[in-house]
């Protein structure tokens, strides 16, 4: 967990103005990987006092656009945010309980960007979601 000063430095490095909501959202997502917007709002409110939904939405968008956060959106779920950026890691998602676990890229460094046929596209991201059941759910009988 980076120190508060580290979050300020991250904003400055991304050429973003340092504001209280931005610091609070960065800290919240660092502490709670894969949080959805509502969770981020309640964490920010708990830690930093009143802040509007719209302010948090705006900050999430700004930080994601700046590359400080990554957004991903499992089908059938709400969008999630995480601070682990730039490594093109993938996700394991449980169909039963919605648990999400990071998994490193399947092929290492220049992650999974070597499509079998790139169709002439310049590829900069591969989004891979492995769907299944988490260990806890796998132990339960199928509902
Ligand atoms: Zn599960
Ligand atoms: Zn992740």
**What series of H and E elements makes up the topology?**
HHEHHEEEEEH
Give the termini separation.
Answer: 38 Å
Largest sheet: 3 strands, antiparallel
Radius of gyration: 17 Å
Give the rounded overall mean pLDDT.
88
- Classified in CATH, the superfamily of the largest domain is Winged helix-like DNA-binding domain superfamily/Winged helix DNA-binding domain
Uncertain segments are none
Binned, the helix content reads: 25-40%
Could you tell me the number of beta strands? Answer: 6
CATH architecture of the largest domain: Orthogonal Bundle
Shape: globular
- Class of secondary structure makeup: alpha+beta
Bound molecules: zinc ion
How many distinct folded domains?
2
Given this structure, which CATH class of the largest domain is correct? Mainly Alpha
> How are strands sequenced across the largest beta sheet?
1-3-2
Strand content: 5-15%
What CATH calls the topology of the largest domain is Arc Repressor Mutant, subunit A
Report on the architecture of this protein.
- With 143 residues, this protein is an alpha+beta fold.
- It folds into two domains: 69 residues, Arc Repressor Mutant, subunit A; 56 residues, 2-Layer Sandwich (Dna Ligase, domain 1), CATH 3.30.1490.
- 36% of the residues lie in helices and 15% in strands.
- It is built from five helices and six strands; from the N terminus they run H-H-E-H-H-E-E-E-E-E-H.
- Strands 1-3-2 form a three-stranded antiparallel beta sheet.
- Helix 2 packs across helix 3.
- The longest helix has 13 residues.
- It is globular and about 45 Å long.
- The site of one zinc ion has 7 residues, from loops.
């Amino acid at each position: 967990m980076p120190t508060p000063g580290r979050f300020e430095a991250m904003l400055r490095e991304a050429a973003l103005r340092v504001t209280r909501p931005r610091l609070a959202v960065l800290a919240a997502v660092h502490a709670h990987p894969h949080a959805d917007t509502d969770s981020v709002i309640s964490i920010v409110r708990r830690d930093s006092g009143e802040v509007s939904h719209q302010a948090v939405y705006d900050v999430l968008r700004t930080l994601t656009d700046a590359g400080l956060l990554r957004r991903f959106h499992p089908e059938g779920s709400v969008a999630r945010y995480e601070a682990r950026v730039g490594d093109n890691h993938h996700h394991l998602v449980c169909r039963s309980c919605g648990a999400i676990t990071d998994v490193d890229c399947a092929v290492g460094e220049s992650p999974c960007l070597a499509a079998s046929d790139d169709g002439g596209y310049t590829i900069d991201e591969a989004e891979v979601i492995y769907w299944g059941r988490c260990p806890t759910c796998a132990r339960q009988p199928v509902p």
